[in-house]
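Could you join me in thinking about how sequence relates to backbone shape in a protein? We need material for that, and I hope you will provide a protein of your own picking. Label the sequence line and the structure token line clearly, so we can match residues to local backbone shapes. Would you write everything just below, so we can both look at the same thing?
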Amino acid sequence: MTTNEENSAPAAGAAEPKRDPVRRGSNRGVVVTCLGALLFMGAATYAAVPLYRMFCQVTGFGGTPMRAEKAPETVLERTITVRFDANVTPGMHWEFQPAQRTITVKLGENALAFYKAHNSSSGTVKGTASFNVSPDIAGAYFSKIECFCFTEQTLAAGESVDMPVSFFVDPSILADRDAANIKEITLSYTFYPVDGSGPKAEVKSGEARQGG
């Protein structure tokens, strides 16, 4: 009499079922594709901030001032008032303010203004400044030639410095129907501490302290 175990046992010498190589290759391809997609998304995210900033500087989008090699040759008698604003983020122990509140410049004129910074902490602090102009539409016509905001700034404990910004307002602003009547432009900076430099206070993030 044959038992159930004997009936269900594979016949002697019978080959075991082979795995499908096509399916195995397909699964490997899916894994590689997913990993590639994750790496691409990570790289794209890392590059997004500098690319966005570059885009803003080229187009003036969002009130970001343009960058220029030199001022235009044409200077008009039409003037515009430029107001200066300064801020620092919490945790950055700098005193930061404009040396002048406003100046009046001719369209196309290469103007020079200064900001003052003082490190009131007990250690060296490295900072970088974000910037914009308002109204936003003026960003396409407000150009900087030289600016402290183009590079990181380092101040030793107790050190003070005057930081220049060279700029002009492009005369082509008069050809823009929406911007031609602008009488005043505000140039605003906010300084942020570079990670790992200087003592940092324990404060809420996302807030800026008015410096002047």
Observations:
- The chain has a mean pLDDT of 78.
- The longest strand covers residues 79-88.
